[in-house]
C-alpha cells in the first residue's frame, strides 16, 4: 500500500513540461530496477532506458491498429510484456490490445515510420560516436584509475551512475491500441516526471515483486 507521503512526493515530482522529442518521437525515460549480475560484476543502479513513442500513422487502414486510437512504441525494454506496458499507460487510458512487432520481419510499419525509425537510430549512433570520441579525448590514466576516480566522486556526492541501455535487434516495437481516441490523446500529452519500469523498495506492490521474480531478480 502506497502511503500518503509517497503519493505526495509522486505528485510533486510531476512536471507541467511536455516530454522532449526526437525525429517526431516523444522520449520517455524509464528508471529500471537495480540488478546485480554476479559476485564479480557491479550492481547496476539507476539505469535509464529510453522508450520512444508517437501516434501511429499509416496510409493503409488496418482494423487491428486504427490510427485514431493507436500508439506506436519504439525501443521497448527487452523484458517487456503486455502487463508492463498496460501498467505504464494505465494512468492515461484503457488499453484494448497490444501488438508486438518483429523489427526485422514485420512489414506493418508505414514508410514514414520506417524512415523515422532509421533517422532515430542514426541520431543514436551519432550521439554514441560523439560520446566515445569525447571519452577518448579526455581519457587519463588506466581503466582502474578511472574506476577509482568515479567511485570516489560517487562517495563524495552521493550520486549514482546513470547508464543507458542500447536498442536491441528484435522485438523492440509495439502498437498499443486504446479503447477511445481521447485516451490516446492523453497519452501523447503526458508530462515529464520520474517513471519506473518496475517499482522496487518499500513502495513495490505484489505485482512488482512478481515481475522481478519473472526476470530472476530478487
From TrEMBL:
Taxonomic classification? Eukaryota, Fungi, Fungi incertae sedis, Mucoromycota, Mortierellomycotina
GO terms in the biological process aspect are:
ribosomal small subunit assembly; rRNA processing
Q: Where is the composition biased (Low complexity)?
A: 145-155
Query: What domain of life?
Result: Eukaryota
Q: Which Gene3D superfamilies does the entry link to? A: 3.30.70.330
Under InterPro entries, the record lists: Nucleotide-bd_a/b_plait_sf, RBD_domain_sf, RRM_Rrp7, RRP7
The coding gene here is RRP7_1
Locate the compositionally biased regions of type Basic and acidic residues. 110-128
- The protein depicted here goes by the name Ribosomal RNA-processing protein 7
Query: Which is one Gene Ontology cellular component term of this protein?
Result: UTP-C complex
Spell out the residue ranges making up region: Disordered.
Answer: 110-162
- Give start and end of each Rrp7 RRM-like N-terminal domain: 22-189
Q: Which GO terms describe its molecular function?
A: nucleic acid binding
Species this chain originates from? Entomortierella chlamydospora
Amino acid at each position: 500500500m502506497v502511503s500518503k507521503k509517497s503519493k505526495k512526493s509522486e505528485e510533486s515530482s510531476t512536471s507541467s513540461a511536455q516530454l522532449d522529442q526526437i525525429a517526431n518521437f516523444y522520449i520517455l525515460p524509464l528508471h529500471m530496477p537495480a540488478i546485480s549480475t554476479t559476485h564479480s560484476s557491479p550492481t547496476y543502479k539507476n539505469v535509464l532506458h529510453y522508450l520512444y513513442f508517437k501516434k501511429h500513422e499509416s496510409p493503409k487502414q488496418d482494423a487491428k491498429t486504427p490510427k485514431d486510437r493507436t500508439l506506436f512504441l519504439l525501443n521497448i525494454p527487452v523484458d517487456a510484456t503486455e502487463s508492463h506496458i498496460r501498467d505504464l499507460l494505465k494512468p492515461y487510458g484503457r488499453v484494448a490490445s497490444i501488438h508486438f512487432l518483429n523489427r526485422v520481419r514485420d512489414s506493418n510499419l508505414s514508410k514514414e515510420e520506417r524512415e523515422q525509425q532509421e533517422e532515430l537510430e542514426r541520431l543514436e549512433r551519432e550521439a554514441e560516436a560523439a560520446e566515445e570520441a569525447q571519452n577518448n579525448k579526455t581519457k587519463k590514466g588506466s581503466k582502474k584509475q578511472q574506476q577509482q576516480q568515479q567511485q570516489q566522486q560517487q562517495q563524495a556526492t552521493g550520486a549514482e551512475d546513470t547508464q543507458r541501455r542500447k536498442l536491441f535487434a528484435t522485438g523492440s516495437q509495439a502498437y498499443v491500441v486504446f479503447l477511445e481516441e481521447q485516451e490516446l490523446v492523453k497519452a501523447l500529452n503526458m508530462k515529464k516526471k520520474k517513471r519506473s519500469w518496475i517499482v522496487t523498495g518499500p513502495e513495490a506492490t505484489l505485482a512488482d515483486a512478481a515481475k522481478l521474480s519473472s526476470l530472476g531478480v530478487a
